TrEMBL record:
PANTHER family: EXTERNAL NADH-UBIQUINONE OXIDOREDUCTASE 1, MITOCHONDRIAL-RELATED (PTHR43706:SF47), NADH DEHYDROGENASE (PTHR43706)
Enzyme class: oxidoreductase
Organism expressing this protein natively: Tetraselmis sp. GSL018
Catalytic reactions of this protein: a ubiquinone + NADH + H(+) = a ubiquinol + NAD(+); a quinone + NADH + H(+) = a quinol + NAD(+)
Family statement drawn from the similarity comment of this UniProt entry: Belongs to the NADH dehydrogenase family.
Entry protein name: NADH:ubiquinone reductase (non-electrogenic)
Length: 625
């Protein structure tokens, strides 16, 4: 197999790579194909070891990172753009998820032509992840929520279906390999870059729990959703066999979901809908054995939502027969049962299962770890992702690397460290104290460098008598029950009035409490989508190079639009900052409309809408094909 170096010059696969010598690769195609097949997992391992199989395609092997042999001899990619402009900056984008595809989609063709853009990903499609649970239950078909990457890059970028194995931050090159496929050997090449955009996401975190990787299904890819769908169908067919014992039926039809966040709740809801709306009619004699459980460490599910939503979800699940195993953590998973430890009673229970879904926790992607280690010491110390500045530039990269989505986190500077400087600047009358208006003014001014001050500045703006629209909105929000930011603001500043004065010590204490409320951005599609759009806007304003001064540009400012989650039986919940908490059938209709409209193309919108109607009218297809 060859990789195209230019329109006329082919690449040759690298020699002696990953356990194959030149002699082995030089044998006849039939012999080579047979040898490669011997290295693959048997089909039975596909279900038993889901992460192991998936990792071969989606993530590079950690032991291979930084150990590629003869990198200098690998073919070097040159632009295939026939109108290549000398000195045109090359931007290499890693990944094909929310952040990277949002960036490419938002980038105007007129702007993209000013750059030589290459997208590298082992997955040649974009996946609309919020509807993965619907695919697992058969409500939506897998093809309805995927979009080929090449549809996004037409006229804007080149795309290479390959895994980035290593990033050479010193020489500004990445090493990519096309995975072994259809009997072909692995082909590797290098891509130099001026700007690297890292958007590879994260991987599932097992927290060192024994047996998870071997026995559980993760839930991050289309393969995971398909695997769960097939497993549920297989469990029902096995349970329907005449020789299956009562005990075995109870085990086969026990479905355990670990994690009470949005993903775990939606998986449980979709599985329940599939059972009650379709399988109940087809397997009526088996319904008494079906049990769906959600294991959650906290004392309530949907911990990032308003508490009223958590309580409503718990009530709906109890009515539906879905058991919430709260205050519990998984201590181990065997091929037959999930070992659950109750943190309150300190007792361990074994829950038999036919299918166990691990839907909790994320950790650093192996490639992100390699980049982190390659950057100057002291610049990167986060345990899960790369630290960036407010412009999404990776610290220690000299402006050559940007990071989007789950792979990065924005450094949030502590305002308390500059308390004395801010106090001196705010004390305009020099009396050694800050009056209310002085405090308001310095918080407004300081919010440019410390965004966490903005909420408090606008609150004080209302206290000081301003009639600005922003102040009125914030005053309304502060009265809303469940708005944690507004409640925190009221706690810290609610007792201040026009006669209040703060000394330097009191001002330092106030900033320290404000800083304590800092939280990293959530690892959600909404954040990644907005970051991709932000980077596209940056490219539209200025020619982006490592030397570009971005001080005239605004930093990334995440705007939370709200959170939706499906909880089953055509009901959903909504946690929205402006209107508060909503739930029920009406929100269920809103959820379906939002997830349909949120597709990246008209084609997918039509397919998803048709899937909703098909599953309601004709039911879900339970065939195992």
């Amino acid at each position: 197999m060859t990789i195209v170096q230019s329109m006329k010059q082919p690449f040759a696969p690298s020699s002696g790579y990953k356990g194959f010598s030149q002699q082995q690769l030089a044998v006849s195609p039939l012999t080579r194909k047979s040898a490669l097949r011997l290295r693959k997992f048997p089909r039975s391992a596909h279900r038993s070891f889901p992460k192991t199989v998936r990792a071969a395609v989606e993530t590079p092997e950690p032991e291979k990172l930084g150990k590629l042999e003869e990198k200098s001899s690998l073919p070097l990619y040159k632009s295939m753009d026939q109108e290549d402009i000398p000195g045109k900056p090359r931007i290499v984008v890693l990944g094909s998820g929310w952040a990277s595809m949002s960036f490419i989609k938002s980038l105007p063709v007129s702007v993209a032509r000013n750059y030589d853009i290459a997208v590298v990903s082992p997955r040649n499609y974009f996946l609309y992840t919020p509807l993965l649970p619907a695919v697992a239950s058969g409500t939506c078909e897998e093809r309805s929520i995927v979009e080929p990457v090449r549809n996004f890059v037409v006229g804007k970028a080149n795309f290479f279906e390959a895994t980035c194995q290593e990033v050479d931050t010193k020489n500004k090159r990445i090493v990519c390999c096309f995975p072994k496929d259809a009997g072909f050997s692995e082909a590797c090449f290098q891509v130099p870059y001026d700007i690297l955009v890292v958007a590879v996401g994260s991987t599932q975190n097992t927290f060192g729990c024994p047996g998870v990787e071997e026995n559980c299904m993760f839930f991050k890819s289309i393969e995971d959703a398909k695997r769960l769908r097939m497993q549920i169908s297989e469990c029902f067919e096995r349970a329907a066999l005449p020789y299956t014992t009562e005990e075995e039926r109870q085990k086969l039809l026990s479905f355990v979901i670990v994690g009470g966040g949005p993903t775990g709740i939606e998986v449980a809801a979709e599985v329940h809908d599939m059972v009650t709306e379709n399988l109940k009619r087809l397997y009526p004699e088996l319904m008494k054995y079906v049990k769906i459980r959600v294991v959650e460490l906290m004392d309530h599910v949907l911990g990032t939502y308003d508490r009223a939503i958590s309580e409503y979800t718990a009530q709906q699940f109890n009515r539906s027969g879905i058991e919430l195993v709260i205050n519990s953590r998984v201590s181990g998973v065997t091929p037959k049962a999930v070992e659950v430890f109750n943190t309150k009673t300190e007792q361990t229970e074994e829950i038999p299962y036919g299918a166990c879904v691990w839907a909790t926790g994320i950790k650093m992607h192996p490639l992100v770890k390699q980049i982190q280690q390659a950057l100057p010491e002291g610049t990167q110390d986060h345990f899960r992702c790369l630290v960036t500045d407010k412009y999404l530039r990776v610290k220690g990269s000299d402006g050559t690397i940007f990071c989007l989505g789950d792979a990065g986190t924005i450094s949030q500077e502590q305002a308390q460290a500059r308390a004395a400087e801010l106090f001196k600047e705010g004390d305009t009358d020099g009396d050694g104290k800050l009056q209310l208006r002085e405090l308001r003014d310095i918080l407004i001014k300081g919010s440019k460098d410390f965004p966490q001050l903005a909420e408090y500045a606008v609150f004080l703006d209302g206290k000081a008598g301003s009639l600005r629209f922003g102040s009125l909105v914030k005053k309304v929000l502060s009265a809303m029950k469940g708005n944690s930011k507004a409640e925190q603001t009221e706690i810290l500043l609610g007792e201040l009035d026009m006669s209040s004065e703060l000394t330097l010590e009191q001002f330092e204490e106030l900033l320290s409490k404000i800083d304590a409320g800092l939280r990293g951005l959530p690892a959600t599609a909404q954040v990644a989508n907005q970051q991709g759009q932000y980077l596209a806007r940056i490219l539209g304003r200025t020619t982006l190079t490592p030397e570009t001064d971005l001080s005239e540009c605004d930093g990334f400012d995440y705007s939370h639009k709200g959170s939706l989650a499906y909880i089953g039986q055509d009901k959903a919940v909504l946690d929205q900052p402006l209107i508060g908490s909503l739930f029920g059938f009406g929100v269920g209709i809103l959820w379906k409309g939002y997830e349909t409209y949120g597709q990246f193309s008209t084609r997918n919108r039509v397919l998803v809408a048709v899937d909703w109607l098909r599953s309601k009218i004709f039911g879900r297809d339970i065939s195992r094909i």
